[in-house]
């Protein structure tokens, strides 16, 4: 009997009988297909330590010494209105001409490319004209303004690569970072994707990158590094970070990070129109860091106490977080107590601080005598009859404190009012025949304004108000506001 076989589902034959079955044959002819393509693999180049150390280094590694290395990345962060764009344009001009940046930092000359997505051609042209008024016409600065650059899109990346390959700039400047991509600046992944584009420019063209960026609102955070807006990957990626702040018309440049060297000391800057066609940015001196730290501590204390009373240990915790020593804090607390902006009381062995607030209403300060002020170039005398006015700063709470009878000179009173007028602050109204002041309200609002520490005051005003606080007399006053016209006898 002949053996039988059956084929299993997996394609093998199983014998049922003893004889071997004839195996099935296939006679189909198959045309061999193309060989599958191997995926492109990145190449990892390695070099021995001895060869690596023997590689020649550039004699001068700096593009702007000691702020920006060649093919480095630098950020310039500041609040709105702190001259970030002016500083960026000045940097481009200095590198393109090989002149020292801010007249202080040596540069390596090379072309500069400005990618402007912040200002527009009209404003940019006006500013560059003023900065480059004394610059040769062939200054190698190239501008792309409001083109819609989007480094989150491959076609824009290719376009910019092509332009950079043609110009070969040593410096590419972006104004501002948030305008040249569509990622989320708080996302580390999105920022890493953007910075990969920057890295390609550095690697392929040896171009340094500089961008403007923004700072968060202050709150309790005074350290500028902590205030850089967005993901922490921004500060982590850059080789150098500059911060710029403004108090009144004075600018301060801070060096927040430097991978390739030491940090420079904070510098005071001025942005001045030297004539009708020229603007010059200058370094006017170095900032006293001890005084700066003490002022920073005063700001933190006043902001913290505005939320409620605090023990000294709690204030220490705030200031230590931003690198302020306990000694500097103690000095700041003493200054604030002397100026009667805060008051400290013992609760057991602990000292608690609160904002200074006298319980008694205080007598209005003596009126100004024969004060002349000016507004928009027009002189106004203050000897006219008193005009009826509504209270400018009415006291809503009868227990609310207001200034008293400080022994200020006429010159000090005049200085106080002129300071207030120059900044357009409240506390006065304009009458048909000159200025009418609610002097009590003026001084109350000034003192409150100073206590809030909005950094819009001069040292002279601070000293004046501190002396006025020291000399004021706590006496009852039945009226809640007293309107005084300069030159009018005291009521």
Structural notes for this entry:
- Helices cover 31% and strands 21% of the residues.
- It starts with a strand and ends in a 20-residue tail after the last helix.
- The chain is built from twelve helices and 20 strands.
- Strands 7-6-8-9-5-10-11-12-13 form a nine-stranded mixed β-sheet, with helices on both faces. The chain has a three-stranded antiparallel β-sheet with strand order 14-16-15. The chain has a two-stranded antiparallel sheet with strand order 1-2.
- The protein folds into three domains: 62-286, Rossmann fold; 291-355, Winged helix-like DNA-binding domain superfamily/Winged helix DNA-binding domain (Arc Repressor Mutant, subunit A); 373-471, no CATH class.
- The model is unreliable at 358-407, 426-441, 449-457 and 471-491 (pLDDT under 50).
- With 491 residues, it is α/β, with parallel strands linked by helices.
Quick description:
This protein has 491 residues and is α/β, with parallel strands linked by helices.
Spatially, the strands of the biggest sheet line up as 7-6-8-9-5-10-11-12-13
Q: Helical residue percent?
A: 25-40%
**In whole angstroms, how far apart are the ends?**
140 Å
Looking at CATH, the homologous superfamily of the largest domain is: P-loop containing nucleotide triphosphate hydrolases
């Amino acid at each position: 009997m002949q053996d039988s076989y059956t084929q299993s589902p997996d394609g093998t034959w199983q014998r049922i009988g003893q004889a071997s079955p004839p195996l099935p044959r296939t006679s189909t002819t198959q045309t061999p297909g193309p060989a599958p393509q191997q995926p492109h693999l990145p190449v990892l180049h390695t070099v021995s330590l001895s060869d690596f150390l023997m590689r020649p280094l550039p004699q001068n590694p700096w593009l702007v010494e000691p702020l920006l290395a060649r093919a480095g990345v630098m950020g310039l962060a500041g609040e709105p209105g702190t001259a970030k764009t002016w500083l960026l344009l000045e940097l481009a001009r200095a590198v393109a001409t090989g002149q020292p940046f801010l007249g202080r930092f040596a540069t390596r000359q090379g072309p500069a490319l400005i990618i402007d997505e912040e200002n527009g051609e009209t404003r940019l042209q006006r500013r560059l004209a003023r900065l480059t008024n004394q610059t040769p016409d062939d200054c190698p600065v190239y501008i792309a303004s409001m083109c819609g650059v989007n480094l989150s899109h491959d076609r824009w990346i290719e376009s910019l690569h092509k332009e950079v390959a043609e110009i070969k700039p040593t410096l590419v400047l972006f104004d501002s970072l948030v305008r040249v991509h569509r990622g989320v600046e708080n996302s580390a992944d999105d920022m890493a994707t953007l910075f990969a584009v920057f890295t390609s420019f550095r690697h392929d063209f040896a171009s340094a990158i500089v961008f403007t960026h923004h700072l968060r609102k202050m709150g309790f955070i005074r350290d500028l590094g902590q205030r850089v807006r967005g993901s922490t990957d921004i500060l982590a990626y850059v080789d150098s970070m500059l911060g710029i702040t403004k108090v009144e018309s004075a600018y301060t440049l801070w060096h927040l990070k430097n991978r390739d060297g030491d940090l420079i000391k904070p510098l005071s800057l001025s942005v001045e129109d030297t004539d009708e066609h020229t603007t010059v940015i200058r370094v006017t001196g170095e900032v006293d860091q001890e005084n700066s730290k003490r002022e920073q501590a005063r700001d933190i204390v006043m902001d913290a106490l505005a939320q409620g009373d605090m023990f000294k240990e709690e204030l220490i915790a705030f200031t230590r977080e931003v690198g302020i020593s306990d000694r500097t804090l103690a000095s700041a607390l003493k200054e604030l107590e002397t100026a009667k902006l805060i008051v400290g009381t013992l609760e057991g062995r602990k000292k608690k601080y609160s904002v200074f607030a006298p319980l008694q209403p205080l007598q209005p300060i003596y009126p100004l005598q024969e004060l002349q002020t000016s507004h928009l170039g027009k002189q106004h005398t203050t000897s006219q009859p008193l005009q009826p006015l509504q209270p400018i700063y009415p006291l809503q709470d009868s227990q609310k404190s207001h200034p008293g009878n400080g022994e200020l000179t006429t010159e000090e009173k005049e200085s106080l009012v002129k300071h207030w007028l120059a900044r357009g602050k409240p506390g006065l109204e304009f009458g048909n025949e000159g200025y009418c002041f609610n002097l009590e309200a003026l001084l109350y609002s000034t003192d409150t304004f100073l206590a809030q520490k909005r950094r819009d005051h001069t040292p002279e005003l601070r000293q004046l108000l501190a002396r006025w606080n020291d000399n004021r007399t706590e006496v009852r006053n039945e009226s809640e506001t007293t309107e005084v016209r300069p030159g009018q006898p005291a009521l």
